[in-house]
């Protein structure tokens, strides 16, 4: 009779009018409740399927249709939500009714009320229904207390973080209004859905559940949740388990906050810390860090890799004669040519000034030598017009050496490549020398 819910669904299928009528028809006592002066409601899986006229007035509704199908917890004040949910959860064969309890509610008109409520469980044709009644005692409550209730409700509704609760079946029973801005859903649209429905990575959801089961809580745990439009939103979750009087877990409550912008800023700062500002390639520290990792990898996976040091020819003279802006233009042209020729697996960085370094990974000499010489040839073909009619050609020298698993720290390999670079300069520059 009911629509089955798929965990991948986003919006839960609410009970249709026909389904509600079928359910109510099974409960004979509703005819008596129609005439009862006290507000009474009947719920199925926490959703209203019957509301008597007195309850319509209690919740400031115009007609019963304003309430049917709604989750009862939608109207419970956040301070009482967990307690009311627990009272509903513990109803069963061994506890058919709850004693009267003072409960705060918020009506459809956003009015705060205090009621004295009771609830009981009935089973009809194998289906479990909860019947709840409430006596409005708002007039006997001091105005300051009601004002405090309204202030807390307002605080809850204006939180930037999303407060949420789940029941023992891991389905959402409370979601703060901030979820609309953060994930695009209205709170009433997601009540009753499995929390797992909103995780981009199911394994992350399993890890959250496992940690709470083990430690009773999690703090600042980062996951990606699905936005209604389909894209992921990075959030940080802090949650704790909810226990009943016998120490059984009956749900989870917590908050999550959007950290997408925070993560983006962190990534940008990390990128800035690793990048040479002028050329956009690795700076000295980041290149050396990656180079050391490459050498360590050679211990586990031996392969042929080459370390090269590249130095622009007569660069100091160009800086002295034409200024640093001209020198910067040459550095950018050089970097663009080399980046265009290098593979994604290669490591390219600026050691400082006009000195650069490259690691060609998983490459033999017969492939590396033509590649490096081709880049030098392309660089020689470039010329740059400087002040007045002065035009200069650009060239560089390269010293290279094979990397081994013993080149840790990297200084020994850098020294070999530097010796080869010295030989290239000695031969007039604009050439490649591989250390033998």
The CATH homologous superfamily of the largest domain corresponds to Reverse transcriptase/Diguanylate cyclase domain
Work out the number of β strands: 17
CATH class of the largest domain: Alpha Beta
What is the fold named in CATH at topology level of the largest domain? Alpha-Beta Plaits
If strands are numbered along the chain, what order do they take across the biggest sheet?
A: 2-1-5-4-3
| Total of DSSP H or I helical runs spanning 4+ residues | 14
CATH architecture of the largest domain: 2-Layer Sandwich
Query: Largest beta sheet, briefly?
Result: 5 strands, antiparallel
**Gyration radius, in Å:** 35 Å
| Low-confidence segments | 1-13
Alpha-beta classification: alpha+beta
Between the first and last Cα atoms, what is the distance in angstroms?
A: 81 Å
Mean pLDDT: 86
Helix content: 25-40%
What coarse outline follows from CA principal-axis ratios?
A: elongated
- Range of strand content: 25-35%
Total number of domains: 3
Question: Helices, strands, pairings?
Answer:
Blueprint: H1 17-25, H2 30-34, E1 40-44, E2 47-51, H3 53-58, H4 78-89, E3 97-106, E4 112-124, E5 127-136, H5 143-157, E6 162-167, E7 172-175, H6 178-183, H7 187-190, H8 202-215, E8 217-226, E9 232-243, E10 249-258, H9 260-274, H10 284-300, E11 305-312, H11 315-322, H12 324-341, E12 347-352, E13 355-360, H13 365-380, E14 383-385, E15 391-393, E16 396-403, H14 411-426, E17 432-434
Helix pairs in contact: 11-12, 12-13
């Amino acid at each position: 009779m009911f629509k089955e819910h798929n965990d991948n669904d986003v919006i839960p299928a609410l009970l249709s009018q026909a389904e509600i009528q079928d359910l109510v028809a099974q409960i004979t006592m509703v005819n008596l409740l129609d005439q009862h002066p006290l507000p009474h409601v009947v719920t199925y899986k926490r959703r209203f399927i019957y509301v008597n006229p007195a309850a319509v007035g209690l919740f400031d509704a115009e007609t019963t249709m304003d309430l049917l199908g709604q989750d009862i917890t939608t109207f419970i004040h956040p301070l009482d939500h967990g307690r009311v949910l627990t009272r509903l959860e513990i109803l069963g064969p061994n506890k058919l009714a709850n004693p009267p309890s003072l409960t705060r509610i918020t009506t459809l008109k956003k009015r705060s009320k205090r009621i004295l409520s009771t609830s009981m469980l009935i089973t009809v044709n194998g289906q479990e229904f909860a019947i709840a009644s409430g006596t409005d005692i708002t007039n006997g409550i001091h105005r300051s207390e009601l004002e405090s209730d309204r202030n807390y409700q307002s605080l809850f509704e204006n939180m930037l973080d999303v407060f949420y609760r789940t029941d023992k079946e891991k389905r959402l029973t409370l979601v703060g209004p901030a979820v609309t801005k953060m994930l695009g859903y209205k709170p009433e649209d997601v009540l009753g859905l499995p929390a797992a429905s909103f995780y981009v990575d199911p394994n992350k959801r399993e890890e959250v559940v496992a940690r709470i089961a083990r430690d009773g809580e999690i703090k600042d745990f980062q996951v990606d949740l699905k936005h209604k439009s389909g894209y992921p939103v990075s959030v940080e979750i802090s949650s704790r388990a909810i226990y009943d009087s016998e120490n059984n877990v009956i749900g989870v409550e917590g908050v999550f906050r959007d950290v997408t912008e925070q993560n983006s800023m962190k990534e940008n700062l990390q990128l800035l810390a690793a990048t040479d500002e002028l050329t956009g390639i690795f700076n000295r520290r980041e290149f050396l860090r990656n180079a050391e990792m490459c050498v360590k990898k050679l211990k586990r996976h031996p392969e042929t890799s080459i370390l090269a040091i590249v130095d622009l020819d007569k660069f100091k003279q160009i800086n002295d004669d034409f200024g640093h802006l001209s020198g910067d233009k040459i550095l950018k042209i050089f970097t663009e040519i080399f980046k265009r020729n290098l593979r994604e697996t290669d490591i390219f960085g600026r050691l400082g000034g006009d000195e650069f370094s490259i690691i060609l990974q998983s490459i033999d000499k017969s492939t590396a030598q033509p590649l490096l010489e081709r880049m030098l040839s392309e660089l020689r073909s470039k010329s740059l017009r400087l002040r007045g009619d002065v035009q200069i050609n650009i060239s560089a020298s390269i010293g290279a050496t094979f990397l081994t698993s013993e080149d840790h720290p990297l200084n020994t390999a850098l020294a070999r490549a530097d010796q080869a670079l010295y030989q290239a300069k000695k031969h007039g520059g604009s050439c490649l020398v591989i250390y033998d």
